[in-house]
Amino acid sequence: MKKPIILINFKAYENSFGKKGVDIAKRIEKVSTEYSTEVILSVPATMIPILSQEVSLPIYAQHVDSYPLGAHTGSLLPEMIKEAGAKGTLLNHSEKRIRADEIHDALIRLNRLGLESVVCVDRYELVEPMALLKPTAILIEPPELIGSGISVSKAKPEVITNAVKEISKVPGVFIIAGAGISSGEDVYTAVKLGADGIGVASAVMKAKEPEKVVEDFIKSGIKAMDEKNDRN
């Protein structure tokens, strides 16, 4: 992962798959290339092999199961997403919660396969325990703000600052802020508060011109990172 981290969750909107999914991914890729900033796309499983061929951006699954290879009908396994071209996956999103032991088992497999992982948590008290399992990053998202248009960086900045304190106890794991992020100002504030980047979905996927929203996010993230580096 490269900072500022910009992670876009396609979820399961009408433009998340098929030709519309490819179109929005290519628009995002163009902006990503222009600003030399990595943008991660977390997409429906059916889109992993398509987008891993169509764009150069890192493609993530939205979820994997921790079952071993075998008789597990309907399961999406780490080995499957790697074969399909994914670079990593989300785990434990608020819309796809799994048990702690499943997170643990999935992370062991993902790490063994060389796949990245972003574990989602809904409160900062879970940041350190989950970080100890060695994911690539923790994404903290207060569920009540997801899709609200009211950003965590404005409504609950203490969630980010407390999460940053907790992640500092486990070197090598990134912290990403999400929930309600909808403007460049939200991104700027989140990064200035100590986040390594942001996770977003509806602000991009529901936008008439998603590439302009992503451009605003990237520019704001870069600005905040540059200011932090100058200060240090």
Automatic annotation (TrEMBL):
Keywords: Cytoplasm, Gluconeogenesis, Glycolysis, Isomerase. It comes from the Archaea. One of its GO terms (cellular component) is cytosol. Substrate binds at N9, F10, K11, I146, G180, A201, S202. Its EC number is 5.3.1.1. One of its GO terms (biological process) is gluconeogenesis. InterPro entries: Aldolase_TIM, TIM_sf, Triosephosphate_isomerase, Triosephosphate_isomerase_arc. GO terms for molecular function: triose-phosphate isomerase activity. Transmembrane segments: none annotated. The active site is at H93 (electrophile), E141 (proton acceptor). It is found in: Cytoplasm. CDD domains: TIM. Pathway: Carbohydrate biosynthesis; gluconeogenesis; Carbohydrate degradation; glycolysis; D-glyceraldehyde 3-phosphate from glycerone phosphate: step 1/1. It catalyses: D-glyceraldehyde 3-phosphate = dihydroxyacetone phosphate. Involved in the gluconeogenesis. Catalyzes stereospecifically the conversion of dihydroxyacetone phosphate (DHAP) to D-glyceraldehyde-3-phosphate (G3P). Belongs to the triosephosphate isomerase family. NCBIfam families: PRK04302.1, tim. Homotetramer; dimer of dimers. HAMAP family: TIM_A (MF_00147_A). This is Triosephosphate isomerase. It comes from Acidianus ambivalens (Desulfurolobus ambivalens).
